């Protein structure tokens, strides 16, 4: 753990949106008078009918509700496009950089308006109405952004499913929200490889009878099967549609999108975000955390399939009239200088990525970075998982030439936007710490007995009150929403993360304290991987835990008990890895499978994951209390086999 402190560079502070004093003053006000604070800052976006009520929230499990700006109306797409047309029509809204380095496109706000209107009209012509759920399964191409904004324009609810998910995962997500429309493309490209999205979609749709309309973008030109009456080419339907589509008037609390995310139990849940509060929060955090100045080029390397893509590629930046860069490719194609070549090519000012990418690039040494210019860079950001101080310092020194502050931003799909992060002109930095809360956010550190802990301490990270970008419910399952987030520590929002607070009040996120693991910045429920494994005919039982992994942060460690009569083999191990990839997607592939003749259980049959986590981490000398085990010999066997692998 590092205790270095990096002061805000003087020049940066002088030109920043907020300095230390202003942060403290605004933060104090936001906590003491949330209604007044958010009432004022809600005006940063355009409302059709202004709100008169700011906040109506109860965290009481018997009447749990979260409402912001509830009597206001607006249109999110109009905020992201139309309101910039007067003075930014010819400014780049999106710079798209393709997988191949010689392929890029610039889309101005005027063009964005036309594209989104055409698609919105085409969707209306195909019968899509306000409130309908539209699933988007797309590569990182501008049409993915058009699709999301077209939904927002007509009040349809989008559910973006990451292009790396399997047909089976896509099917589950389409079915859960009863989506009637799917927007996809022939294929996606990543590092020169084609990802057969339409083929995957066809497989998924075999099980989704209610999804009757498919719009297909022609991107790679790969051969695809078009189903008569169901499938429509994007270019045909948009060419036939009018380029003008008046934005629908949407209630602040009407849903904007559903995004599925993994939890500690069961299947992924549909996190529901609404329109007004979400946009206020996404745009405000984007402006303040990235100290965004008009005319700057901002690049977030996330995929639109994750919340980071929603809030910080699309909605936040576009609501602020920014130029946002969208990248289809990967950091190591055609070579490991790619990120920095793109920075130089498009004169990127702010660069926002995940620690896993930084660690992977760090391995390649400094040369691929140092041979590029990067003088346009002003600010660096990190998101998705804890960043180890070593990676932080490398990012700061090698990528940012010690000139660019690094903002380590902690947040979640559920939070809609950043909750804990430095503001680069206001906050001294400590490598590895997400530092201080954003306006309106009051973190509380709580022990397992529900006591609030004061001062320098460590415990479970909760948030005391609501903020406008907070999720409103789990789609179709409000009870699960209440159970997951508000019952462990009654009266608080529980993040599922642990944290440490140091003597300066800085927060250090220590990772999940529940059965969610974070693999390369992607959330994965151990229960999901387990249920995929036990669905295989040779598997009797399985327990999945995370373990420390140099590159991925956490790797997936699966203990597998085979059915009687089945023999472990290298071949079967490979088969099981393939099986999980097929069931969920490549991001869920187990890194290590250990054959387990038995799993450590309590006498009541509960698997003792705490012990399995220790064995996986090679910390077999710290197994803790094993006295409640039904059969202690099981543990000895597992330890011995883990040790044998080194
Ligand atoms: C983790 C991604 C440490 C955390 C925006 C959280 C982080 C989960 C950070 C949410 C960070 C995200 N430092 N941990 N800066 N950012 N996390 O929903 O465990 O995909 O609960 O949202 O990622 O992942 P999600």
UniProtKB/TrEMBL annotation:
Residues 528-606 form the AMP-binding enzyme C-terminal domain. The keyword Magnesium applies. CoA binds at residues 190-193, 308, 332, 520, 581. Keywords: Acetylation, ATP-binding, Ligase, Magnesium, Metal-binding, Nucleotide-binding. Its EC number is 6.2.1.1. ATP binds at residues 384-386, 408-413, 497, 512, 523. InterPro entries: Ac_CoA_lig, ACAS_N, AMP-bd_C, AMP-bd_C_sf, AMP-binding_CS, AMP-dep_synth/lig_dom, ANL_N_sf. Acetylated. Deacetylation by the SIR2-homolog deacetylase activates the enzyme. Its cofactor is Mg(2+). PROSITE patterns: AMP_BINDING. GO terms for biological process: acetyl-CoA biosynthetic process from acetate. It holds the Pfam family AMP-binding. Residues 82-465 form the AMP-dependent synthetase/ligase domain. It catalyses: acetate + ATP + CoA = acetyl-CoA + AMP + diphosphate. Catalyzes the conversion of acetate into acetyl-CoA (AcCoA), an essential intermediate at the junction of anabolic and catabolic pathways. AcsA undergoes a two-step reaction. In the first half reaction, AcsA combines acetate with ATP to form acetyl-adenylate (AcAMP) intermediate. In the second half reaction, it can then transfer the acetyl group from AcAMP to the sulfhydryl group of CoA, forming the product AcCoA. This is Acetyl-coenzyme A synthetase. The gene is acsA.
């Amino acid at each position: 753990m590092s205790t270095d402190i990096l002061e805000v560079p003087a020049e940066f502070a002088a030109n920043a949106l907020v300095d230390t004093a202003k942060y403290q003053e605004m933060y104090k006000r936001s906590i003491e008078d949330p209604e007044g604070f958010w009432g004022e800052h809600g005006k940063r976006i355009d409302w059709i009918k202004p709100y008169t009520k700011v906040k109506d929230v109860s965290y009481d499990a018997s009447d749990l509700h979260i409402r912001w700006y509830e009597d206001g109306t607006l249109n999110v797409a109009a905020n992201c496009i139309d309101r910039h047309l007067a003075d930014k029509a010819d400014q780049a809204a999106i710079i798209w950089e393709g997988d191949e380095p010689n392929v890029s496109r610039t889309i101005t706000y005027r063009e964005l308006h036309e594209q989104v209107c055409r698609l919105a009209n085409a969707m209306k012509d195909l019968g899509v109405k306000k409130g309908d759920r539209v699933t988007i399964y797309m590569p990182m191409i501008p049409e993915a952004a058009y699709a999301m904004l077209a939904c927002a324009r007509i009040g349809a609810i989008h559910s973006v499913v990451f292009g790396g998910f399997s047909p089976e995962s896509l099917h589950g997500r389409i079915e859960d929200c009863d989506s009637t429309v799917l927007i996809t493309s022939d294929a996606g490209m990543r590092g020169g490889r084609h990802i057969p999205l339409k083929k995957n979609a066809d497989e998924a749709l075999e099980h989704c009878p209610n999804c009757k309309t498919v719009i297909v973008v022609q991107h790679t030109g790969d051969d695809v099967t078009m189903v008569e009456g169901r499938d429509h080419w994007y270019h045909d339907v948009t060419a036939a549609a009018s380029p003008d589509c008046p934005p629908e008037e949407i209630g602040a609390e009407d849903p904007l999108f559903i995004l599925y995310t993994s939890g500690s139990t069961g299947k992924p849940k549909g996190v529901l975000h609404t329109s007004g509060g979400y946009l206020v929060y996404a745009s405000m955090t984007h402006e303040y955390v990235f100290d965004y100045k008009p005319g700057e080029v901002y690049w977030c390397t996330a995929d639109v399939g994750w919340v980071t893509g929603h809030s910080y590629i699309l909605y936040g930046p576009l609501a602020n009239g920014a130029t946002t860069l969208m990248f289809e490719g990967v950091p190591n194609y055609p070579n490991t200088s790619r990120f920095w070549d793109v920075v130089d090519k498009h004169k990127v000012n702010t660069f926002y990525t995940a620690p896993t990418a930084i660690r992977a690039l760090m391995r390649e040494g400094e040369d691929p970075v140092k041979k590029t210019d990067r003088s346009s860079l002003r600010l660096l950001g990190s998101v998705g998982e804890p960043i180890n101080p070593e990676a932080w310092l490398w990012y700061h020194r090698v990528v940012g030439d010690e000139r660019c502050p690094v903002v380590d931003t902690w947040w979640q799909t559920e939070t809609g936007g950043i909750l804990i992060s430095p503001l680069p002109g206001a906050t001294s930095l400590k490598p590895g710490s997400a530092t201080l809360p954003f306006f309106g956010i009051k973190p509380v550190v709580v022990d397992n007995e529900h006591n609030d802990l004061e001062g320098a301490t460590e415990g479970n990270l909760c948030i005391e009150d609501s903020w406008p970008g907070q999720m409103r419910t789990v789609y179709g399952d409000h009870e699960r929403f209440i159970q997951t987030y508000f019952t462990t520590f009654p009266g608080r929002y529980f993040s599922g993360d642990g944290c440490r607070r140091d003597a300066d009040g800085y927060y250090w996120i220590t990772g999940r304290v529940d059965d969610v693991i974070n693999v390369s910045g992607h959330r994965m429920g151990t229960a999901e991987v387990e249920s995929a494994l036990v669905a295989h005919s040779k598997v009797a039982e399985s327990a999945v835990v995370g373990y420390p992994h140099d590159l991925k942060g956490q790797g997936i460690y699966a203990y597998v008990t085979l059915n009687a009569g089945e023999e472990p083999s290298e071949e079967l191990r490979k088969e099981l890895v393939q099986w999980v990839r097929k069931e969920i997607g490549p991001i869920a592939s187990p890194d290590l499978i250990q054959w387990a003749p038995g799993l450590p259980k309590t006498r009541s049959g509960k698997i003792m994951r705490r012990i399995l986590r220790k064995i996986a981490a090679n910390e077999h000398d710290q197994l803790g209390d094993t006295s409640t085990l039904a059969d202690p010999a099981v543990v000895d066997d597992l330890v011995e086999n883990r040790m044998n692998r080194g």
